[in-house]
Design goal:
This protein has nine helices and no strands. It has helices at residues 58-75, 79-92, 97-109, 113-132, 138-150, 154-167, 172-184, 188-201, 206-252. Helix 1 (58-75) packs parallel to helix 3 (97-109) and helix 2 (79-92) packs antiparallel against helix 3. The chain is elongated, with a radius of gyration of 27 Å.
Length: 262
């Protein structure tokens, strides 16, 4: 199985297959609710933004059928064929967020990094538009986080994953992905909390266990660094006080200059 390339930011993290890969446990079968973002409307009678279901067009339904075909080809390592199918889906529904995301995965597995990045950007933007009127769609937030993660924008990924946690607080996959992104932002203590939660929910998640060990190591390094910085600051402050005191003593004991002769 090919490994997908993820962008590394600030700190080292283990190269593991994330939930969006071929071997991921999370499924994305709720494709119908990830329709063209322009087909969602806002209910004026509700204080919370919600989407009014709109029947999919024939083209959109065909795009979703093609997406499933492309995903199956991708699982079979038929990347060239899968990419072609995803492109056909996008030709029918240009704003189909998951089709952009899946095409990005396929291109990345082929080593086409720049093209994959463009698809991840399109996916992130499409998901971002979609969730504005579908604020309870956990899958949309999750895959938006995945897209941002692959773009190396872990701050945005964290925001998306935290929305999923609010909607699905018992999903170990989300805590795992959240922990990874937090680690890549060097927010180790929060990462430890998220990864520990992933393990609590799924004790057999060895990936979360490995990531937790690394996050703890990172948190310990941060503590050591902070102590060193605090010690250095105390030494600098003490040196400054001594210098000031020596200056005062020197001025106080100095003899007055002799008066000038007339």
């Amino acid at each position: 199985m090919k490994l997908l390339v993820t962008v590394f930011v600030l700190v080292s993290a283990a190269s593991v297959c994330s939930t969006g890969c071929r071997s991921g446990s999370r499924q994305s079968d709720a494709n119908a609710n990830l329709s063209n973002v322009t087909s969602s409307t806002t209910s004026e009678s509700s204080t919370e933004t919600t989407a009014t279901p709109v029947p999919l067009t024939q083209e959109q339904n065909e795009a979703r059928t093609l997406l499933e075909q492309g995903k199956e080809l991708f699982r079979q390592d038929k990347d060239t064929e899968a990419a072609e199918i995803f492109r056909k889906a996008l030709a029918l529904d240009a704003d189909y967020a998951e089709a952009h995301y899946r095409l990005g995965l396929t291109l990345a597995s082929q080593g086409k990094r720049d093209e994959a990045e463009e698809e991840y950007k399109k996916a992130a933007e499409a998901y971002k538009k979609f969730v504005r009127t579908n604020q309870k769609d956990a899958d949309a937030f999750f895959y938006m986080g995945q897209a941002y993660s692959r773009l190396g924008d872990h701050a945005e990924a964290v925001k998306a994953y935290k929305q999923v946690v609010k909607l699905q607080p018992e999903d170990p996959d989300v805590y795992y992905e959240l922990g990874l992104s937090l680690s890549r932002l060097a927010q180790y203590q929060e990462a430890v909390t998220a990864l520990q939660k992933a393990i609590d929910l799924d004790p057999d998640n060895y990936r979360a266990g490995e990531a937790l060990d690394k996050a703890k190591e990172g948190a310990e390094r941060i503590k050591v660094l902070q102590k060193r910085q605090e010690e250095l600051l105390r030494r600098q402050e003490a040196a400054t006080r001594r210098a000031n005191q020596n200056g005062l003593n020197s001025n106080g004991s100095a003899k007055p200059a002799p008066a000038a002769s007339p």
